[in-house]
Write a structure and sequence with these properties.
Blueprint (H helix, E strand, L loop, with lengths): L2 H31 L6 H21 L2 H23 L8
Helix pairs in contact: 1-2, 2-3
Length: 93
């Protein structure tokens, strides 16, 4: 495997690592709050990981992978938009 291909494999693993890490983040936050939570960082990690994996899929010219990551990327962008549009909650106490 050439250095160039090894670099792309590394990029793919970084994207997959971010994508997997978002689930660890969600799990830890949910455990700490003792209820299911999806922190805002989950959506950013999803978006960044998805874009990186999409770049890898484009490099590999894999149409199935490209289609799947493209749709996911749109969902993550939309969720980030919704999070920023939501009224801020005030915590009293």
């Amino acid at each position: 495997m050439s250095y160039y291909e090894m670099m792309w494999v590394g990029i793919g693993f970084v994207g997959q690592g971010l994508f997997f890490g978002r689930w660890l983040l969600q799990w830890v936050v949910s455990e700490r709050k003792a209820e299911s939570q999806i922190p805002v960082a989950f959506w950013y990690m999803s978006l960044i990981g998805s874009v990186i994996v999409l770049a890898y899929a484009i490099h590999r010219l894999d149409p199935v992978f490209i289609a799947g990551q493209s749709v996911g990327t749109l969902v993550y962008v939309r969720n980030i938009m919704l999070v920023h549009r939501a009224p801020k909650r005030v915590v009293s106490g």
